[in-house]
Every structure is written in structure tokens, then in C-alpha cells.
């Protein structure tokens, strides 16, 4: 009882102090969007930018460059940037970083992620199908930007210019897998070891072989380990 009597005055004082608290910071006047506010001379709560304000960055008026679509809403059919060897090389570099692990070095959808089971859930895009060969360049830019199926968008990771560079490299990959012998000069044929007598037909790249198997080392402590792929053998991906 004595202990309770000692703490009684302290509790009473605490209650009095709490009763005097209020929520000014919560109920204080504030500016609400599109509402009237007499604090300003024009009576408007929404404030306009100060005259002469310069925006951060620049306006994105080039619809095709930033979206892959024309002004009429159709997919862009022509590259909005000048395609040079440097652009394609840049596209290859970006492709190897962001795309190759799924789509494969040849763009055939046989990247390492696909080989390790992902394609069982959903086939990875193969650029060499008839549908994608005929697809406008804007489609590839849109897919890189916004994603497709289980592929997430890369707009926040890859600049618009680099996305178009990747598109240029995808087109180069498509061409590389369907070039005709008659379209190549003698120097190119000699460089790639193509028989000059070959006149027609596409020059298909040999399919990538499966990883070689490491010889079974035999039983260890009476247990025979399963045969495993040699992770050091390059598969072309």
C-alpha cells in the first residue's frame, strides 16, 4: 500500500501532462492540391512553377526513339538512329550483358538459363523463327523496354540509345543465321571457309553441342557419385 501511495502522485501528474498534449502537427493547415488557399494572393493552393524555371533533363518528343512506336500507334519499322559498326558493337556488348544468358549467343533461345531448365516452364524467344524475322524493329525495342511474358522490362537498366543498339545487333544475329552464299563476296567466303562452288542456300551455323561429361571417378567410400557435366567446357553460349 505504501508503494502504491508513493507512485500515485507521479501517475496523476503524468495524466495531467498528457491531457494537455494536442495534435497541432497533425491538424495544422496544409495546402491541398487543386484547392482554395487564401494564404496566397491569387487564392490558389496549387502553385505554378516560377517563371523561367528550367526542367531537369529534356522533353521526350521523339516518340519512335523513346517508345518504339510511330505517332499513329504502329510499331516502328525503321531504326531511329544511324546504324554503324560502332553501334552494332555497342549493341553486342549490351546484349552479352543483359540478354545472352537467356537468348543465347546466337539468339536461338539456348542460353545457359534456358539450358538449365527454364525453357521447361516457358520457351525462351528464338530470334530466328519466321515470326520474329518479320517483326518490325519497334517490337524488339518495346520488349526490351517493357518486358514480355516472364521477361521483365529493362527500361530502367538500359538507356534508350543502348536499347536500339541491342536491336541493331539482334538484326545482325538474324542476318548471320540466314545469309545466302550468293550474297557473299570471295573474300568473305575465304574468311569463313565457304566453298566457292556453293551457290545457293542459307549458311546455317552448326548447332551448339551439349556439355561433355566428366569421366566417372569411380566409387568413393563405397558410393558411386553420379556423372556430372564438366562446368569448364565451353558450350558456345
Characterise the protein shown here.
- With 237 residues, this protein is mainly alpha-helical.
- The protein has helices at residues 2-19, 24-27, 63-67, 85-98, 100-103, 112-121, 130-133, 137-146, 160-176, 186-191, and strands spanning 147-148, 151-152.
- It starts with a helix and ends in a 46-residue tail after the last helix.
- It is built from ten helices and two strands, in the order H-H-H-H-H-H-H-H-E-E-H-H.
- Residues 198-237 have low confidence and may be disordered.
- A two-stranded antiparallel ribbon has the order 1-2.
Task: Note the topology.
Blueprint (H helix, E strand, L loop, with lengths): L1 H18 L4 H4 L35 H5 L17 H14 L1 H4 L8 H10 L8 H4 L3 H10 E2 L2 E2 L7 H17 L9 H6 L46
Antiparallel strand pairs: 1-2
Helix pairs in contact: 4-9, 8-9
Highlighted features:
10 helices, Cytochrome Bc1 Complex, Chain D, domain 2, mainly alpha, 2 strands, two-stranded antiparallel sheet, 237 residues, single chain, elongated
How would you summarize this macromolecular structure in one to three sentences?
With 237 residues, the protein is mainly α. The chain has helices at residues 2-19, 24-27, 63-67, 85-98, 100-103, 112-121, 130-133, 137-146, 160-176, 186-191; strands spanning 147-148, 151-152. The longest helix is centred in the first third of the chain and has 18 residues, at 2-19.
Level of helix content?
25-40%
Q: Total helix count? A: 10
- Determine the structural class based on helices, strands and strand pairing: mainly alpha
Quickly give the CATH architecture of one domain.
Answer: Orthogonal Bundle
Amino acid at each position: 500500500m505504501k508503494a502504491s501511495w508513493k507512485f500515485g502522485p507521479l501517475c496523476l501528474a503524468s495524466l495531467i501532462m498528457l491531457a494537455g498534449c494536442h495534435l497541432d502537427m497533425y491538424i495544422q493547415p496544409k495546402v491541398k492540391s487543386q484547392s482554395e488557399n487564401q494564404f496566397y494572393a491569387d487564392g490558389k493552393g496549387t502553385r505554378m512553377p516560377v517563371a523561367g524555371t528550367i526542367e531537369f533533363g529534356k522533353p521526350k518528343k521523339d516518340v519512335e526513339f523513346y517508345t518504339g512506336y510511330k505517332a499513329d500507334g504502329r510499331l516502328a519499322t525503321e531504326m531511329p538512329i544511324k546504324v554503324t559498326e560502332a553501334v552494332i558493337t555497342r549493341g553486342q556488348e549490351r546484349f552479352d550483358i543483359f540478354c545472352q544468358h537467356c537468348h543465347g549467343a546466337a539468339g536461338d533461345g539456348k542460353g545457359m538459363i534456358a539450358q538449365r531448365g527454364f525453357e521447361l516452364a516457358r520457351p525462351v524467344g528464338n530470334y530466328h523463327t519466321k515470326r520474329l524475322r518479320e517483326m518490325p524493329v519497334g517490337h524488339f525495342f518495346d520488349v526490351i523496354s517493357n518486358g514480355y511474358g516472364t521477361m521483365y522490362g529493362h527500361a530502367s537498366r538500359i538507356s534508350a540509345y543502348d536499347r536500339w543498339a541491342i536491336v541493331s545487333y539482334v538484326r545482325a544475329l538474324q542476318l548471320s543465321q540466314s545469309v545466302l552464299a550468293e550474297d557473299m563476296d570471295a573474300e568473305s567466303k575465304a574468311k569463313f571457309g565457304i566453298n566457292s562452288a556453293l551457290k545457293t542456300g542459307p549458311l546455317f551455323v552448326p548447332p551448339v553441342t551439349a556439355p561433355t561429361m566428366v569421366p566417372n571417378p569411380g566409387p568413393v567410400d563405397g558410393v558411386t557419385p553420379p556423372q556430372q557435366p564438366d562446368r569448364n567446357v565451353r558450350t558456345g553460349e
